[in-house]
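A common beginner's mistake is to predict each chain separately and then try to dock the pieces by hand. The better habit, illustrated here, is to supply every component at once so that their relative placement is modeled jointly.
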Amino acid sequence: MSLVCKLQFTILAMAIVFCYSTASAQTYETIINNGDSANRVDLVILGDGYTASEMQKFRNDAQTFVQGFFAQEPFREYQNYFNVHRIDVASNQSGADHPERSVFVDTAFGAAYNCGGIQRLICVDLAKVGNTVAATLSPAQRDMTLVIVNDTEYGGSGGSIAAVTSTHPSAIEIILHEEGHSFGLLGDEYGGPPPPDCNSSFEPSTPNVTKETQRAAIKWGSWIDGATPIPTTSTIAGVPGLYEGAGYCTTGLFRPTYNSKMRSLGVPFEQINTEQLIRRIYNLVSPLDSSLPSASTITVPAGGSQAFSASTPTPLTHSLSVVWSVDGQTAGSGTSFTLNAASLSQGTHSIRVAINDPTSQVRNDPSQVLKAQRTWTVNVGASSTPTVQFSAASYSQTEGNPGVDVIVTRTGDTSGVTTVNYQTLDDVVTISSTDCGTVTGIALSRCDYITTMGTLRFAAGETSKTITIPLVDDSFAEGTEHFLVTLTNAFGATLGSTTGATVNINDNESVNGINPVDNARAFVRQHYLDFLNREPDASGWDFWTQQITACGSNAQCNEVMRINVSVSFFLSIEFQDTGYFVYRTYKAAHGAIGMPVPLRINEFLPDTQQIGRGVQVGVGNWQQQIETNKQAYLLDFVQRLRFTSDHPTTKTPAEFVDRLLLNSGVAPPPDERNSLVAEFGSATNTADLAARVRVLRRIIDNQVLINQEFNRAFVLMQYFGYLRRNPFDPPELTLDFQGYNFWLNKLNQFGGNYLNAEMVKAFISSIEYRRRFGP
Amino acid sequence: MKRKLSAKTILVAVLVGLLVVAASYFALAQSQPEPSRQSIQSGDSDRQPLIENQLRDLLTGIGVLVTPGFQMAEDRNVREVAIRWETASASKTALATEQTGGKFSVSSSQVSISSLPRRRAVELAETEIFVAAVDANSKLVWWQVMSDPRVLRSEKVSSSGEVSGQTLYLPNVDFSISFPDEPNITEVRFFHPQWNGERFQLTQIGVITVR
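With all components supplied together, the output reads:
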């Protein structure tokens, strides 16, 4: 708590302190990750009154809570429906405020006992808690919030923060009771005396309290055995009936069981409350996690087949029922189903998957939340147009292998040429951290594989193509992770139903290992991947590795050689002719309007890969290959929407040339400028595509531009290559170009000497770079 | 010698400073999670007619229109608005019984790429707030149910384990809501669900103007 807040506290003599502060994102860990937050109940745990040196205690306390929470039904059975995130916020001082004995401590969320004059009531700064959670987690990741206060005295509160609790031994039971209210919308099952006042004048809204005494009208009537008397006076635990005393009324309102957690601590929720809690879980979690194909209308050739799949969350001791039907007739069960179109007539058919939780713990489900279904429309028909799609909906590879092969197939009439674009994607739905070491189940291109994209070309007769995606062998024990690969923009074929596939990377570590980037061979391979977008060739890999290993145990030599080897990749002909060529293309075409660099990493990577495809300097006729790639690239580039918008063909040749020169920051002599204009001959507009390419190419290759932009590109490639992000992207603290400008100024200050500027050294030894690969 | 030492000290200090600056550029920090890309369907679109009926029952007669075929707005761009809700004058700060109405004012607003939680059924309680984002014609664009931020429950346990307690209300609270950053959303309205013994009726307690 800040001094200002403390002052307010004292003056107002009030336990709730409103301190307006813009919270920043805090370090957090997803300690239980059971899937996409969009379809899970996400619980957030924060601590207050834990100093930096007590953070391990906080982690232990949070773990104790988690274990206690998921030890009780129904949370035990449905624990896989929950994610748990722990946000680590250190307080300046330990404990909580005790105004009743004039004890005030400086804590992150200002936890204070004796709130509103009630000793056991702990209040926290709701705005600070809310701001911290909002700055750290996405809305879908914060369904319930719990604050653990580092004080052993009994106390807590419930409300919009589901529970605030001390570390008193009964804390877990209090939390579960409060969750019954805030999450389960359950009422209290205890009676008087007031406060609160008893009001039994009408039927309560809560599902576990009633005033009805007619068996048929009791809202949990289906749970009451016909032999159980109404009202019920039994004292046997767990027998559903109608027990008088609930909702703050000693008489006139009834509860479902003799005792329950909504009446007493240390007992189960019992049947009716458990049923409601399960329904509440399903209010947030669909029993259908995902289903494939993603398209809802698909075409299957007559005689062909189509695979369908559905995935569901998994309760601890029972399974959800998954039933498939075709045109209303049950056709199968289980999470996968293959439609054989040979058994169907040509035309439109309906495929449906229905999911249901058959649990005996829910007898009433008026909103049908325990069910989900999805329907596809399948057009069965003969088609001469070939279909391209992935050979499978998922692929797997074990980390440590250089890459994973993903296969694209072409079926149907394969006599023509087909092209289709492919691209890898992070499945960022549940990303909970940018740190490569955080266990999320999601593979990140920055950490686990290399972004791969391009266009596949099927020649006549070809039916299969393989995409190899390089994998990064990090040393984090992170479990199985996955990313996505997609197919788009097919020409000469239609896209089949499997246009998206999941690639699973099986971990090869059970515990965190030594950071592999310290290994020279791994360090060099990563540079091939990061700068040249390819696996190393054997001789090059050996050569650059030996440059480092030749230093032996000489640490200083080792450091210098790592820097020199690293820089060699930026300076290499292969990179200068691909990555730096792309940089200059954007600079000449569009300038650097609005930011000090002309392009972003999402523009850089695909274009660089396009030019570098099939190129390995020193192997074969690589010069011709790269020239062919450059020409094809520029021909494509000048036809892109952004280029044609910036440079409409109605411009005169002089206008076109002058604009490109202005963008480039190059002012050639008049005769050179005029010769550029002359590329268009006598034309008065710039519709000549080839001339547009020639002019752009000549400016890109202008030596002044090459020299002028060198340092800027050098710095930018530190971000693109090593950190795999834009200079302004998180975790850049200021989210702008301050860092980029710092290094550019420093590089310029040292006349481009990267060693003296210590730029490369700083990047390759940075925490951010090193954390891509290991602890 | 002393002078040389001082120069060296300064140099070291400068280098340390530079290292600190450099380190700050690479400091590992946690950031707002990346956006959600909904590439896979969960089948909940089949539930829309059910939810539409529940919403129509609830919102009819209180000035919010639920159009046939109502679909929740997409939520890739999410607007998060911090709101101050004052139900008592500034001098009144003690915990109290529930106050109706009050003043809603926007403290801050920002847009990020994110995803929102979704309810699969409309279920209410008197300790919750129903939030409706509407367009200029009062058509429902998006809805959510959230805990009433004013509620504070204080409960104690007897030696036998039996619970007792009371519900209190904070007079002034700060809270935030998130909703799709849809250009057609002009207002966000807040309703308090009141139970009449048979059904919930919504009473508008506040509104914020989005555009």
